[in-house]
Batch of 2 targets.
Target 1
Amino acid sequence: MTGTAAEAEVVPLLELAGVRAGYGAIEVLHGVDLALRPGSLLALLGPNGGGKSTAMRVCAGLHPATGGELRFAGRKVNGISAQDAAKLGVCSIPEGRGVFPNLTVRENLWAATGTGARLADLEEKAYGRFPILGKRRDQLAGSMSGGEQQMLALSRALGTDPAVLLLDELSMGLAPMIVTRMYDTVAELVEEGLSVLVAEQFARAVLPIADTAALMLNGRVVATGAPAEIEGRMAGDYLGG
Amino acid sequence: MTTFLTYTILGLVLGAVYSIAASGLVLTYNTSGIFNFAHGAQAMFGTFLYWQFQQWGWPAWLALVAVIGVVGPAMGAALHTVIMKGLRGTADVTKIIVTVAVLLGTVYLAQWVWDPDEARTVDMFFGTGAKISVGGVEVRYHELVCLAAAVAIAAGLRVLFTRTRAGVVMRGSVDDPDLLRLNGHDPERAAMLSWALGSTLAVTAGVLIVPISGGALDADQLTLLVIDAFAAAMFGRLRSIPRTFAGAMVLGLAANYVLAYLPSAGTFTGNLRVSLPMIILFVVLVVLPQDRLRGAAVRTRERYRPPTVRSAAVWGAVLIAGVYLYSLLLSDSGITTFALGMTFAIIALSLTVLTGYAGELNLAPLSFGAVATVVAFHFGVHGTGLDARLNVQGILLAVVAAALVGGLVALPALRLRGLYLALATLAFGEFLSNMVLRDTTEHKLFGIKFTLFPGGSLVVPPLRIGPLDLRDGTSSLMTATVLFALIGIGLAALRSSGYGRRLAAMKDSPAATAMLGQNLVRLKLSVFMISAAIAGLGGVLMASATGTVAQENFTFVGSLGLLMLVVVAGIGYISGALAGGLMAGVGSAVLVATFNDLALGHESMANVYTALGHLVLVMTALVGMGVGRNPSGFVHDIADSYRSLRGARPVLYGGGAVGAVLYVLAVTGVIGAWTFAIAALCVVMLLPVVGRMVMEERGSRETPLELAGVDEPYTDELRGKLDRALGLPAAHRPARPAPALRGEANAPA
């Protein structure tokens, strides 16, 4: 891999080492290596079906790894449950809309206090960052626009003070302007010291704010490096050239 | 005025109990997405225990604390842990069937433990004498307790759902359990809590309702009484607690006003009162706006393989030959029972087309059979006494009538889907069962006097078509079998036609089907009518095979039992209908009868045999609960295991030879007919196992590619093979050995 010696000395907050995982009899991840350094944004890129979402689900504790090691701050945590991972400070926003459609905005934030945050803090931060959510606080989340739902999902990361934020396909189904705004918020969170792992099909959305990028193809990470470097490789790899 | 006040108070009290029962339903539905048909059975079981505890000399308050504080929560938590947890991601029909199985199992268990022939009563709290007077009307303390409890529970649940985090988390667990985990909650804990609470509410309702509805404790009646609360729950569209409360009050008041102000002559008013909750349920379902079509396809774990017409024809011939050969072994009574089972199998076919092919639900298939039976009885019988026969015109008329009634029921319900449609058919079935099948009074319409169900039972004579007289068992059995085979072939043809594909599309995604320009209304209506016609035909044959039928032959519990067994066998398969129908019509009945005979014959072992008889019934329900683990049915598994036997001809021939030897032994009387049946079933079941062992010895099995990485290491050689199969990279790496680190190579996707 292309990581430098200096990078290797820092204990990564979140690390996958040779992780294998699959669905039933079909293996999807054939030994994935990834390391998220504290306070950085790692963009996990690659085409559909490459295993990005599965890798994210393994990190969040939603899917068991059948081989290799999953480490939080250097500690092996294979087989951790999602709720325990959440309590250890992993905030994961899954693919699609990470909201409960039949709960109101406020109730969604209330449900997000499962890791020990206070509802008042969450509301203050969420409505401060996205005023529209404040106006819609008693509206059912499922009845809001896609962008508003994604804001609500992201609000969970604002008020619960996580150590690691996992974002899976934040841009899915959203207008480009809203995507930019979302990633601006993510960039601010990184500035404040949060470590973020982003899986994204549309590299252009996330590469400008990424510290490191990894390219995932056919269930393995084929390259890790500076965003510009990976961007250069991607065109060729996508097209099979 | 006093009459009005009296009935108003009685109505409010009944409404209060309905509200408690209905809010338990709403609670579990909101937190697990499962509509719990067993709610009434849980109420019943708790109430029986309440009675039992008092029999042991416990004071009433202690018994109450025990059932509400311990039995209720424990029952709910156990149900969730053992059964309901496994139901995520299954189709509506599977969820319904599993709770129906719990209902049946609980009722059977209760009838086993507490002999139904013995009379039991539950007293009111503080006794019947404790009362106060409100505006000249006496109100008992027990009734005040009901009202107070209902108000407190409704308010408490409302607060729980909207004002506490635990309640919010419970609601979230239906939306997205995984997301709840990511939020640091345990969705299973939330669901378990809600089941415990729901079960406690059921038990509370049961203990309260028995004294106000007469005090007699009866497992079936009590279960159905709580099912009346479904209507109240539907007022709140299974979501809103306040609206459920209001609906329950309307229901309670309506039931009492009917009693107070309608003429009490004849059976009409009494029947109307009993079926009122179901009429209201139907109206509410049809009138209240329901969920819009969901856009996404419904992804479930059920998988069915549609048959080809040719294979259906071959198997139909095999079935006819097999049944004929087997009938040679049976005694006359055995043949009669078998023929009855075959008519049930025909009714089961109506479920295959409706649920298996079109994905719609009918919880009252026997009711359509009842419609057809009533029509056939009135219009199709000629001759009297022993010479009485059904004629073909009568049967055709009955089938048409069943189809029309099916269409009539489906028409207002066409906007409904899944659970709502299922409940509408349930309401219709109960309505029919109470209003028509109990209607023994004489009516006068257009100057014609008639009685729908004279004397409470109908004598349905056998069918005669020209020279074919179904008086003797064998011709009756063979006719039913041939009809089953013909309808089965017809259904296979239907399934593989354009119409059948449209049905399958509607099942997978109604929204997508509508967008393709299909007329969903016409599709649903037509499939419902086809299904009702088949159920009608089966019903008439069933009635005629039984001889004398009454309301008990067409009950809601009977319909549910049949549906459950068909789902257990595999509702997407014609063979599933055969197996399920035979089990419903023959299986348990024969086993229970056998054990009862044995109990009579061997007095020293009577207890053991009686227990075994009960156990058979409970076991069938247990099998139904297992549907959650295997939603495609056991026929699917057997067919799958035989598919792998194709290459092992010696095993198949061997199996055939063993079958032939068994048959010869049976014909010559060396072994009995039942021994033969059981041995033959064992051969059928064991053959794939033997085959697998034989084939493994040959060791010719190659790991399929998709199992690479699991059964075998994911080698570079394999990867190269995959790439070549995809036609992608071979040009890139000519003659180069597989790269050790593919990640380093510039590999294409």
Note: The radius of gyration of chain B is 29 Å.
Target 2
Amino acid sequence: MKIDAIRQREQLTGWLLVIPAFLVLLLIYAYPIARSFWLSVFTQNLGTQLKPVFSGFHNYARMAFDGRFWETMMHTAEFSIASVVLELLLGLGIALVLNQSFRGRGVVRTITILPWALPTAVMGVAWAWIFNDRYGVINDLLARLGLIRSEINWLGEPMLAMLAIIAADIWKTTPFISILLLAGLQSIPADLYEAHAIDGANPWQSFRQITLPLLMPQVLIAVLFRFAQAFGIFDLIAVMTGGGPAGSTETVSIYIYATVMRYLDFGYGAALVVVTFLLLVLAVALASFFLSKLRAQASGAE
Amino acid sequence: MGKRQKHSLKQRLLQSLGLFVAILLSIKLLFALPGLTQQPVTLTFLIGASEVPTWKELIKQFEAKNSDIRINLIEGPNATNLLEDLYTSAFLLGGSPYDLVYMDIVWVPKFAAAGWLMELSQLFPKEEQAKFLRGDLEGGRYRGGLYRVPVHTDAGMLYYRKDLLEQAGFKPPDTFAELMQISQALQKQGVVRRGFLWQGRQYEGTSAMFVEILKGYGGFWINPDTLEVGLDRPEAIQAVQFLVNTIRDGVSAPGVVTYQEEETRRIFQSGEAVFLRNWPYVWYLANKEDSPVRGKVGLKPMVHAPGQSSAACQGGWGWGIAKTTKHPEQAWRAVQFFSSSDAQRQFTLMAGGLPTRRELFKDPQLVQKYSFLPTMLEVLDKAVLRPPIAQYDQASDILQRYLTAAFTSQLTPERAMKAAADETRRLLGTKG
């Protein structure tokens, strides 16, 4: 009876202590999202003198036939999936190397994290010059190696421009993934590998049966983080191509920015935000579902 | 004893009441004081950081002459779109801190349509208006109202290599065909790598460039009065075809579809091309001491089709007054000062940049320093506006997307322009 009362009081204290954090979360996450939902059922643009006029689901109907929106959605998905998958593979490789002990490891680790520490807009300008058809380093290298005879117009072809942007993004954010994975690698006890080796496992088997399953939590976090971030990519593309050529590298966030800040079409912009938000939540939910299933399988296989 | 105590309590109560009233009065006085002592009013505006040093000098002079006005200058980013974002968000949030608005010409219709600007035609007499360049002044109008007083002008034109043309015995070209011929001849001789450089990246600069080519073929983009769209007319398709041909024939580098002003300027300045379409700033840079083409550059209005005339896309900056300002009278005095002949002359002498008053293009002091001013006036007289409609940004984005689709051979010029025209009509709510 007495213990029950104490527990109850503790629970109450617990709730009381949580309330401030909960309120802050509500204020900075829930409120903007709810507000976007609210705005999205109004038409508020230059046509209405910027006054909100209730229009129900008109904005959503308009979106269904807005080719530009679905195109930008596709570009965003292409970009996010390609960059996250490649960054994960590369990042894992780098993390494995950095986890070995060798001379000068501290220096190498510091250098590896550098790209991530640079402001995106600055490195975007640099990459735009690297991919410049006339003065770019890439074309120069390829020409010197005798691989190309005429200059490749990297940022001037829809496909190549997307590749160039993905390459720049990989350069920038792979370090982030490798640092995350490195932390995961370091938390795996060495005796596991020892015992495994005594049982006669070769390094590849150790990697598959110990490293991968135990690294899964970090992989999951890295993928979710990076996917959500890649989905909102803005600065890199704004600097490198401005969404061109022919809108081929325009992402959702660039389109939303244009709709709200330049076209002053707030209701429609809010509807775009809402749909993008829901699609992103769906994508993240699916990704984490499959990854956790994968993880369960991997640990079950042990 | 008890009585005394009671008395003192009453006294104390009275005392504190008196104190309270005194405090109240003095607070009230504090607020009323500025009115009595003529405290100067403060005018606030936002300007790109690179222009700040020059403006500070002008502001100092203005404040010396107007002791009742203080100017609060806020430094903003240099990029035009970022500056626009800052002004836009300030107005959207209501209670904008800005009294004056330093505006790029293409913001005018949108800002005016949003109701953020004060109408100026009552303050700005007709005979005063006539002293300004026509294109710059017209760029300040939206649906009959005047919202901006121009202070710097900007216009697109054709730069050419005087020395190369003379050597080969060519006159500067007047038509698109001549430009192509000269380019190809000089390229064949191996004198230069490229003929003609222009800005083809998907961004506002492409629309500006295209306006010139389009008008040069006798076409139009959007008629602001009737909202008629001319992008799928034969002249417009010819204009796109011309630009596509320059890439196809190697006269322009394939990279032009990724270039903005600076990339084209650098390549031209390094001596790799004969012709360049660009803005006036190139003149200063191309004639700097370390420039390989120093003294070898000429400029003229853009080429055109036979029987048509040249066109220069009108750019430039000017002053508007925020509708929310509490000091419209003082704000107008500041605008008058900053757009005055004297202030503009000083600005040009200090920082380059072209004035907007016609007389200054013949001003001896200015012409002595900038010999190209009289030629510039010829260019500026051909100025063409980008369509002054509220949804200009959207219309421009549509055009840019389909132009770059044609430049990169995703679509033929016909199909690209048909699609662009249809989408623009949908935007404006007009039927084909």
Note: The two ends of chain A are 45 Å apart (CA to CA).
